[in-house]
Amino acid sequence: MRWLWPAAVLLLAALPLFPSLFGSYAVTLFTLIFFYGFLGQAWNIVGGFAGQLSAGHAAFLGIGAYTAALLSVEKGITPWVGMFVGGALAAALGTLIGFLGFRFGLRGFYFVLLTVAFAEICRIIASNTDTIGGAVGYYITFTGDPRQFQFQDARAYYYVALALMLAATGVVAWLARRRFGVYLIAIREDESASEALGVDTFRYKLLAMMLSSFLTGVGGAFYAFYLFSLQPGSVFGIPLSVEIIMRAIVGGAGTVLGPILGSFILSPLAELARLYFAQSGWHGAHLVAYGLLLIAVVLFLPEGAYPRLARLFRRRAPQTP
Amino acid sequence: MNLLETRGLSKHFGGVHAVAGLDLTLAEGEVVGLIGPNGAGKTTAFNLLSGFLAPDAGEIRFRGRSLLGLKPHTICRLGLARTFQIVRPFPRLSVVGALGRHPAAARARELARAVVERVGLGAKAAQPAAGLTLAERKRLELARALATEPALLLLDEVMAGLNPTEIATLVALIGDIHRGGVSILLIEHNMRAVMALSHRIVVLNFGEQVAEGPPDAIANHPRVIEAYLGEEYVHTAPSR
Amino acid sequence: MLFGGVFSLMAVGLTLIFGVMRVVNFAHGDMMVWGMYLAWLMASRGGIDPYVGFVVCAAALFVLGFVVQRVLVQRIVDAPHEMQILLMLGVALVLENTALLAFGPEPHRVRSALAQSTVWLGPVFVDVARLIAFGVAVVLTLLLSLFLFRTDVGRSIRAAADNTYGALVIGTDVRRVYAVAFGVGAACVGAAGALVAPLLPFQPPTGLQLSVASFNIVIIGGMGSLLGAFVGGLLVAVAESLGAIFLKPSLKELVSFSLLVLILLFRPAGLFGRRAP
User: B touches which chains (3+ CB pairs under 8 A)?
Assistant: First the structure.
């Protein structure tokens, strides 16, 4: 266990070097791994640490994406700024959902439903608002202008995604050690007991929700200027929320490295599935695989891959006095 | 001024009066036992006192200050801590309790260690809580509550499920905690423990106080016997 | 309005599962959609009218529910609620997307000879199909109540719901009871799906909408109360038909979700709810 952290850091440090070694497909794959790892990490704050399962995080991504896209295309405001505006708006929604949910004492399944409902409401509104493209979607013309967060070179996206993932992980690592993190974990374990022990559970849950939704909203800007097309069904939809949750759950919700590990496991699998199945015209096959994987993880690996791996390594290592 | 005082405390659920006009007092340094048959309203009273339920009527004063409308975490910070019947094991929670009082993580960890030592779990401090026995988990629960440095500790059936030896150990520990300056209000079914610990006992039935007094007076009180065993047995009480 | 009978059946199924096992069946709507697809299969391949074939759908879904419970849910009865939620989400994903794989994303509809005709009922024109759907749904709900209150198996289900420990003490095979309850709950939506298949176009994503509708009803009516689910179903059906008159079809979903939010915030105990989850 002693050497796990240094190894991880070394690996992370090596990542910036990879693009020069890889072909373009690998660069794309890694970009996706980093980006979804970032989203999973953002979710991890409220879903993993605080234990409030949100199945509607796509709403925050969507808001961030549309905001950054609209500001850039319609108003010429660069996404480098727009991403924070998007993040702020997403955080506003997150605060609303959190406030309503926690004030009205919605826990567990009820809270999940609330988040799903809000995400779907966003999706439906976006689908029916023709000024932003309606159900057909909003398209951004590619200009390759870095000041507008567009890059000719795919490797630039690699670095941005990597930076996002490291930043989010840094935030999570920081809060895990502080009082904030300990409180969140306590709330996840036993909310009533935490409350009785003097933890203002409402406040901390809301803070977690705000932080998580803000980060996810910032990620939306990346999404918009990486894919250049936004469809309400994809960007607000449940499949995307599921992708986000899966990273954290499979890798280890409530751990610092979990979502990253989860992304390294899932993204390659997803790409493989997409390649293999999409060719035969099998829609949705990879979601079936996700569903099965989710079931398997819940039944056999509930704490996620990272804790299990960590324990494995701990057992192999010689006992240090 | 009493440490804790309630006046006319009432709570009903639908048509049932869980607590009906309870007047309870507890002075600084006292240990008061709260007994009564199942459904008498004891846990409801605890929930009202610790802020998990809002009363329908009545007053609660802690050190002269009204607790009405305050959230549980605020009440805890004022010095009133409670334990729960079901202990969900998690090693860090004693640290959490300590953090509640001391924002600085280092000081909190010191306090948590001290408290864990105090309840006799020092040797197992590094173990995950899931590996503890029931008796040890009860002590962990105590440690958590103690880490908030309370003036008044509400203990909810801590003896439940323990064997006589474990009970004796726990009684000794609670006595020790009390001597350390903590006042205690305890719900308990184990009569030995209640008699041993309490300065005064309050008996509840159907949400109302039916008797109050020192332990030996309560043991033979006709209304207490009636509450537990029913009217027919009142005559079998030994005459004083 | 006549959808109410079917809604009630859906909601009753969900309540049964929740009431007995405290598990929220996120895959409820997706199971119903499978009921619809099965009805479609029988109609298009076998020429069996869904108003007859619904029995097969109910049976098939019973097996599905039974297996899901026995093999999956049973393993995590003691796990924290988040795990149960995630499990059922996984099941929902699998069901929805296997339907997508098997039948494709285009909407399907079932042709039924009866769906074409209408009949005078007092002063109102009524679809025979809807009438039958309503009638059958009500009959099934009554049969279900008979089952729960008069048969031994039914009674043991209710006993296990009220007091698991007590049921264990008197020797009930609780695992089998749970599996049967889940199976029956799934059978309800299987039948409901078949009954409704001629009336609505459906596609895999319909599953989510139906799940939301079920949750709406069950939460309004009161989690854990069968009567509440039944009444709730009728109420929501009325509300929906009113909504359909005034709003664009794409906004109907919006109403449904907004209603869910409002219900969640203001009525988690529902009208008849006996206990909080």
Answer: A
